[in-house]
Amino acid sequence: MEDEWEKIEQKPDRKYKVEGYYLLNQRAKIEELEKNLKNEKAKRTEAEEKTSSLENQMQTQSDTLGATIQSQGQAIEEQKSQIEKLNSERNELSVEINNLRQGISDLRNEINEKEQRAMQLMKENDELMAEMRASQESQQQLVAGAQQVGELQQIIQQKDQQIQQLNAQIGAVQSRPAAAPARPAAPAQTQELLAEKPKPPRTAFTPPAPRAEPTPEFAPKAAAKGGWACPNCGSSRVVEESDRSKMLYMAAGRPIYGKKRRCLKCNNEWAI
C-alpha cells in the first residue's frame, strides 16, 4: 500500500481503483479523526475558558496583591516611623537613666557624708554628756558646799548672839555701883568664851575645779579618800560602775545606764 501511495503522490491527477474495505477503513479513520478533532476543539474551548478564568483570577489576585503590597508598604513606612520614634525615645530614656544613676551616686555620697557627720555628732554628744555629768557632779559638790556654808553661817550667827548676850550681861554687871554687893561670878560659859582666843576670819568657799578629762560611762570610779564605805565589810575600797540591769534612757542611739557601787574586798554590790 505504501507503493501505491507513492504512485499517487507522483501522479495525483490520475484516477485509481480503490477497494471498498479500504475506503471503509479510511472513512472510519476520518470519522474517528473528526470525532477526535471535535473533542480536541471542545477541550481547547474548555482550556481557553479555563485560561480566561485563570487570567481573570490572576488579574484579580494581581490587583489584590498590588493593593496588599501597597498597604503593607504603607504599614512598613508607618512601622519605620514608629521604630525611629521608639529609638528616639530610647535615646532620651538612656540619657535620663544616666542622669538618674549620676543622681543616685551623688545621693550615696551625700548619705555617706551625712553618716560621717552623724557619727561625729554622736561622738560630740557623748563628750557633751560626759561633760554634763561632770558638771552635775560639780553642781552637787557646790550644793553640798553651799549647804555647809549655810550651816556654818547659822552656827556663827548663834555664836554671835551668845557673845552679844554675854557682853550685855557683862556691861550690866560693870555698870552697878560699888556699894552694891559683890557681883556673882560669871558663868562658866562666859569664862570659856572669854578665854577662847579669837580665830582668824573664815575664807570664802571655793568650789572644786572640774576635772580635765571626764571618766567614761563604762569605766569604774574610785571613791575619794574618806568617801564611800562598804555596808557589808566596812572597806573603803569601793568603786562606782554602770548598772547594766537598769537603763535610764537612750542618748544618740546609745543606752544610758544607772549607777551602782561594788566593794573590791568582798565583792558586795548595792544600787545608788
The first-to-last residue Cα distance is: 156 Å
- What would the principal axes of the Cα set say about the shape? rod-shaped
Identify the strand order in the major beta sheet. Answer: 1-2-3-4
**Number of E strands:** 4
Biggest sheet statistics? 4 strands, antiparallel
Which percent range describes the beta-strand content?
Answer: 5-15%
Total helices: the number is 3
Find the structural class using helix and strand composition: alpha+beta
Based on CA atoms alone, the radius of gyration comes out at: 68 Å
The residue fraction in helices comes out at: 55-70%
Model regions low in confidence, pLDDT < 50 over at least 5 residues: 207-224
Helix/strand order, N-terminal first: HHHEEEE
- Name the average pLDDT: 79
